[in-house]
Design brief:
Number of strands: 19
Low-confidence stretches: 178-186
Strand order of the largest sheet: 11-14-15-16-17
Number of domains: 3
Shape: globular
Oligomer: single chain
Number of helices: 21
Strand content: 5-15%
Structural class: alpha+beta
Distance between the termini: 31 Å
Largest sheet: 5 strands, mixed
Radius of gyration: 26 Å
Mean pLDDT: 89
């Protein structure tokens, strides 16, 4: 029985991965530190305009970083007998690490192509001579590309907002050469302010209230620990120090002392920010996402990562919550919905608007639950009522199966939209307004209802049922983009109607200008060639194999 083409590519990727793992240098600690040093030199993604890419949609720097750390952390029985991959590290650790990262990046790209084939976005054939040819098979942008574009916009928007504060702080940076009053690198005052500015730009990564407890710590404690790690990493950078080892016990004691929190609690927080042998494969499942703030390289030795603490550390944190306790993490999803609701209401902060305190349950005449509404906004000035279904899913699904579950959860809103509109047809908007605010309902009438479905990170899919077009569908970054990330103004004529129309008419992101170029990915001696279309693939085959 023949093996399908995509399974042969899977086997090839696994073989190449095993070869890389077996060929890492015996001094794994030095290898990990070399990889972290190179990652720390990457530009901050929020300040880089990404180029189009056939595999990722938007080119990602350091795509193979998580894969590289996975292979370096995982044990291999044959490692001591295998030659070091990519030459001897004695020729220079940085050169070795760059070659290793490049090879891991190519593996990560190949795995993404496999995922595209699973979703139907791409198709692939094996020519039997060591070359796999893949091409984009649809004009529909994959959900993962749209998600990446939305989240990148959100991250860049927050970075731009706080860029003036960061620039002003950088101008005040202490000079370790000159010293002088206020220039003592041992003082945390300057670095406290700098870390706070970084944390503000990470607001898109974490959707929990600060007093919620997960994994034995409150969210506020995790943020405080992260702030300490950011200060520590920035101070090391300004001293000209590269990634270095520290003992976990020293780190926990130092943080606990500075934050006045018991060491046991800090130890749990530090563990959750740490990539180790057990968690490495989990975090490498999605290339280019959430570098680790800390890496455990020896039983009691940790290596900090400047790149990890200043890019997506809170996203790493949430993924680690889910890995450690998937059921407990799932049970707290409703708390993220409340944060989402409050962020929505912050856009309607003027006194002309009335908002619901929480979700509103809608029941059938017999008293059984029909559906619920997650958020309600009423505009006294226009008599318009906005009803919102909020979907606060995790960003960057780890597998095709997880992405499918997210799609089904979002598109379940079709039934919820139908249920809400059916209830309103029976009872009317005024009845719903009375459930929101009885005093307002006595003085005002609802003239028009606008239903919305908002996903925090993801709302648009290239497959599955068609969204109910009686509602306006969009992502939270999409809403912020349409409103220029500003609250509704008191002078706006009919903001709910305007938002509904703009969101409903907001065109899908224009197809990326991928052009006619192809991308070739080396996987050991084999290669994977990716084309922007089947026609481009056929044209290339015709040139290589003339009739």
């Amino acid at each position: 029985m023949s093996v399908p083409d995509h399974q042969r590519l899977r086997l090839l990727i696994d073989q190449r991965q095993s070869h890389l793992r077996a060929g890492v240098p015996r001094d794994r600690t030095a290898a990990i530190l070399a990889v972290l040093r190179l990652r720390d030199r990457l530009p901050h993604p929020a300040f880089v305009e990404p180029a189009p890419d056939l595999v990722t949609g938007r080119r990602l720097a350091g795509l193979g970083g998580n894969k590289a750390l996975q292979l370096l952390l995982e044990p291999d029985a044959d490692a001591d007998d295998a030659p070091a991959a990519f030459g001897s590290p004695g020729e220079g650790w940085d050169g070795w690490a760059q070659r290793f990262l490049d090879a891991c990046g190519r593996l990560a790209e190949a795995e993404l192509v496999l995922r595209h084939c699973e979703t139907g976005f791409m198709r692939m054939v094996d020519d039997g001579n060591g070359t796999f040819n893949a091409w984009i098979a649809t004009k529909q942008m994959p959900a993962s590309w749209r998600e990446r574009a939305d989240i990148d916009w959100w991250a860049a928007s927050l970075a731009r907002r706080h860029a003036p504060e960061l620039r002003a702080l950088h101008s005040e940076r202490p000079d370790p050469e000159r010293g002088g009053p206020g220039d003592d690198l041992g003082s945390d005052a300057y670095y406290h302010r700098l870390a706070d500015a970084h944390l503000k730009s990470m607001a898109y990564q974490l959707g929990y209230p600060p007093d919620v407890t997960l994994g034995g710590c409150t969210i506020q404690t995790y943020r405080d620990v992260l702030g300490w790690l950011i200060r520590w990493a920035l101070q090391a950078r300004d001293r000209g120090e590269a990634a270095a080892l520290c003992s976990r016990s020293w780190l926990v004691a130092a943080i606990a002392s500075d934050l006045a929190v018991d060491p046991e609690t800090i130890d749990r927080a530090v563990a959750t920010f740490t990539l180790d042998r057990e968690s490495a494969a989990y975090h490498a499942a999605v290339p280019g996402v959430a570098a680790a703030p800390l890496v455990q390289v020896e039983p009691d030795r940790l290596a900090p990562s400047l790149h990890g603490v200043t890019t997506e550390p809170l996203l790493f944190l949430t993924r680690e919550f889910k890995r450690r306790d998937a059921q407990g993490y799932h049970n707290t999803a409703f708390l993220r919905e409340d944060v989402f609701r409050q962020e929505l209401y912050a856009l309607f902060d003027d006194r002309r608007f009335v908002t619901s305190a929480g979700a509103i349950k809608l029941r059938r005449d017999a008293g059984t639950l029909r559906t619920d509404i997650d958020a309600v906004v009423f505009d006294r000035k226009t008599g318009t009522l906005g009803v919102f279904e909020l979907k606060s899913q995790d960003p960057f699904a780890r597998s095709t199966a997880e992405l499918t579950r997210q799609r089904d959860n979002v598109l379940y809103a079709n039934r919820q939209v139908s249920g809400v509109l059916d209830w309103l047809r029976r009872h009317g908007g005024d009845d719903l307004l009375g459930r929101v605010d009885s005093r307002t309902a006595k003085r005002f009438r609802v003239h028009k209802v606008y239903p919305f479905v908002l996903g925090r990170y993801l709302a648009h899919f290239s497959d599955g049922p068609e969204p109910d077009r009686r509602a306006a569908w969009g992502t939270w970054p999409q809403v912020l983009r349409l409103l220029d990330a500003q609250p509704i103004r008191a002078t706006d004529a009919n903001p709910l109607a305007s938002l509904f129309t703009r969101l409903a008419n907001d065109a899908s992101p224009a197809p990326l200008p991928l052009g006619d170029a192809r991308e070739e990915i080396a996987i050991g001696a084999a290669r994977l060639v990716v084309y922007p279309s089947y026609a481009r693939y056929r044209a290339d085959v015709a040139v290589r194999v003339p009739r």
